[in-house]
Amino acid sequence: MEVINALGRRKTAVARIYLKEGSGNIIVNGRDYKEYFPVAILQYVVRQPLEIANVVEKYDIKVTLDGGGFKGQAEAVRLAISRALVEIDEEIRPALKSKGLMRRDPRMVERKKPGQKKARKRFQFSKR
Predict the structure, then answer these.
(1) Which of 54, 56, 86, 98 would suit a FRET pair with 20, their CA atoms being 20 to 30 Å apart?
(2) 109-126 per-position pLDDT tens digit
(3) Are 53 and 85 in contact (CB under 8 A)?
């Protein structure tokens, strides 16, 4: 099996992954994913597609992350792994899709408008 690469995005985070057969190692920006994502919930988010497909110990994954915060990065990795697994085996697509892992989350930060404090918050109104 050759190396399969996939791309995942969330907010401003971009994850490029390289998936190949191996022993289940996940390396993120040169570090182990448990070291890169110290919070257990984010570690679960990264492993989620592998656990649904029952291939946790089957593939080695090398991840290059760019931009965003920790949560956005973890969810970008999740989408990229899901896409790569579907590229390998189309049979697991319905299981991943039913859990909502095949869809890029379209929510982005709303831009700040001129004449306002933030995107929606206004400066205090003074009648006199």
Answers:
(1) 98
(2) 999 999 999 999 999 999
(3) yes
